[in-house]
């Protein structure tokens, strides 16, 4: 197989002749026509219109235990119940302190407890022990108690009673608790028939630790993790192996916390709503379908439509891309777009993001079955998904180290006339913007595959067509400028004189602003124009130039679910 000459990849290709260098210089210049591609909707939103970003917290096991203790203490003092009943009340309200305060105001204490299934005797208070319940089960002067499970008599020191007053021997309680833990239970209820009282945590732990320490440890872990599993505001980091952290997201306004994309300190980046990898601007249901299709073997059945090479439109030789930029050059000298295989000029002003129902070469339409059209649709979107995914890997793994080397050279080069050019931050900033857009582009093709002719039910076809044109215009412009930025950074990383460095910085800075504006515009088009047309309600994470939010260390002595007692409450 013949290899291609991918001009944008400085790390494996030699510099062309002088004439070609002049052409390349023209390519990487950002002229007025490029800037003119940005219309008002593609520009970044004014500062006052930027949506407040959700704040993410990383919760360790230690901070989770401290936060849970605070929540339990607040409820115990507020409602005057013991620890196990406070936990049941929190679990019933999904560990949302605000709901407990609201329900207490509206319903009162007794109704609040009954609604949560908490059984507390009228004479029972949080300060009393089990002696009152024991007195109810034993006649005056009694020195032994009959267990209603094994029907044996036991001295008072060998039996235990719960809040409800039902008393059983410690051996029966212990085996009952061990079996419940083995079945996955987190909340132990009384053994008496039809009794729903919750067992005292202190008694459960004491009995289990004696004969079943392993079950006691499992129960403690489940109780600790219960607030994470029950809360809508907290979820476990999906890292494998698990890093042990939970992530809490505080609202950014408009319910953004439900769709936030989060970066855990362990390095895992994921969608807070579905727990999968970050996938905006594609909604969770569409992303799940795409993942199921790719992982379920359907892609393997369509491998014939996804070739590993492209044929040169001039000499028909197979070409394999070996870099991030999709503007490649055949050994015969023909320039082409690797995404669609079409011939292009050296200036690479080519845009091919729109799907067109045409088959055969040269744009000649051919008769095609519905299945054939669907396969071609899939080929169009899947190829671009894979191409941008591979380009991201190339630009991260190969271009990234070269950009770091460029930054070090700029810091050490005292001959550069402009102090701003010696600022080593601009290559890394432009490279981060490039990688961010490379992540967005493949996901945008998944959205387009399902949104435009892929089975997503919409309300208004005419509005959908206008929104599709709008989206594809922004997508095509973003794709074009990302290729130019990739090419610019690759050229900038080559050894150059001071004038070339100044020019490279100007071009990279301008292009970084252009792609950021286009990316933000595409997100707004999806959120404001496309998703409202769907019959099934969907949403996406809001656009942020720096990508998913990095979770901060969870502050100590803070409620794990974010609920603090409002100042107006009593």
UniProtKB/TrEMBL annotation:
Give all residue intervals belonging to the RING-type domain: 143-356, 147-190
**One GO MF term attached to the UniProt entry:** zinc ion binding
Q: Which InterPro entries match?
A: Ariadne, E3_UB_ligase_RBR, IBR_dom, TRIAD_supradom, Znf_RING, Znf_RING/FYVE/PHD
Single Gene Ontology BP annotation? protein ubiquitination
Entry keyword Mitochondrion: no
Catalytic activity from the UniProt record: [E2 ubiquitin-conjugating enzyme]-S-ubiquitinyl-L-cysteine + [acceptor protein]-L-lysine = [E2 ubiquitin-conjugating enzyme]-L-cysteine + [acceptor protein]-N(6)-ubiquitinyl-L-lysine
Q: Could you tell me the keywords of this UniProt record?
A: Metal-binding, Repeat, Transferase, Ubl conjugation pathway, Zinc, Zinc-finger
The enzyme class is transferase
Entry GO terms, CC: cytoplasm; ubiquitin ligase complex
- Per the similarity annotation, which family is this? Belongs to the RBR family. Ariadne subfamily.
Its recorded name reads RBR-type E3 ubiquitin transferase
Which species is this record about? Oryza sativa subsp. japonica (Rice)
């Amino acid at each position: 197989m013949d290899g291609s000459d991918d001009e944008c990849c400085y790390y494996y290709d030699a510099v062309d002749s002088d004439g070609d260098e002049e052409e390349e210089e023209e390519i990487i210049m950002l002229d007025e026509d490029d800037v003119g591609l940005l219309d008002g909707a593609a520009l970044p939103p004014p500062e006052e219109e930027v949506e407040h970003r959700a704040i993410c917290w990383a919760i360790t096991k230690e901070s989770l235990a401290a936060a849970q203790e605070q929540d339990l203490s607040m409820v115990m003092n507020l409602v005057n119940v013991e620890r196990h009943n406070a936990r049941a009340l929190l679990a019933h309200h999904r560990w949302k302190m605000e709901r407990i305060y609201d329900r207490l105001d509206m319903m009162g204490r007794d109704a609040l407890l009954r609604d949560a299934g908490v059984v507390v005797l009228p004479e029972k208070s949080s300060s009393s022990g089990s002696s009152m319940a024991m007195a109810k089960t034993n006649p005056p002067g009694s020195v032994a108690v009959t267990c209603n499970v094994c029907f044996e008599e036991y001295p008072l020191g060998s039996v235990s009673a719960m809040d409800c007053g039902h008393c059983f021997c410690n051996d029966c309680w212990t085996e009952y608790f061990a079996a419940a833990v083995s079945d996955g239970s987190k909340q132990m209820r009384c053994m008496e028939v039809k009794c729903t009282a919750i067992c005292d945590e202190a008694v459960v732990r004491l009995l289990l630790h004696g004969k079943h320490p392993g079950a006691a440890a499992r129960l403690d872990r489940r109780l600790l993790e219960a607030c994470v599993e029950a809360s809508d505001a907290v979820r476990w980091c999906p890292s494998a192996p698990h890093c042990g952290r939970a992530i809490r997201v505080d609202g950014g306004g408009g319910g953004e916390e439900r769709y936030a994309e989060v970066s855990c300190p362990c390095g895992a980046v994921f969608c807070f709503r579905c727990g999968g990898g970050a996938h905006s601007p594609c909604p969770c249901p569409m992303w799940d379908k795409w993942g199921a299709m790719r992982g379920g073997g359907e892609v393997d059945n369509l491998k014939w439509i996804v070739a590993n090479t492209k044929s040169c439109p001039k000499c028909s030789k197979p070409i394999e891309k070996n870099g991030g930029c999709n503007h490649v050059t055949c050994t015969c000298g023909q320039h082409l777009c690797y995404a669609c295989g079409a011939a292009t000029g050296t200036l690479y002003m080519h845009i091919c993001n729109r799907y067109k129902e045409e088959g055969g070469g040269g744009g000649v339409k051919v008769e095609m079955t519905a299945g054939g059209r669907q396969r071609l649709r899939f080929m169009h979107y899947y190829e671009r998904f894979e191409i941008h995914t591979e380009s991201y890997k190339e630009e991260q793994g190969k271009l990234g180290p070269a950009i770091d080397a460029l930054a070090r050279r700029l810091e050490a080069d005292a001959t550069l006339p402009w102090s701003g050019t010696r600022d080593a931050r601009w290559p890394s900033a432009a490279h981060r913007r490039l990688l961010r857009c490379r992540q967005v582009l493949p996901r945008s093709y998944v959205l387009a595959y399902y949104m435009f002719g892929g089975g997503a039910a919409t309300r208004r076809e005419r509005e959908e067509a206008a929104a599709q044109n709008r989206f594809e215009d922004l997508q095509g412009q973003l794709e074009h400028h990302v290729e130019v930025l990739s090419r610019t950074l690759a050229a900038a990383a080559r050894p150059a004189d001071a004038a070339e460095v100044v020019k490279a910085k100007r071009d990279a800075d301008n292009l970084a602003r252009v792609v950021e504006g286009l990316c933000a515009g595409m997100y707004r088009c999806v959120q404001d124009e496309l998703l409202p047309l769907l019959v099934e309600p969907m949403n996406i994470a809001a656009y942020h130039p720096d990508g998913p939010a990095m979770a901060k260390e969870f502050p100590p002595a803070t409620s794990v679910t974010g609920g603090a007692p409002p100042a107006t409450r009593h």
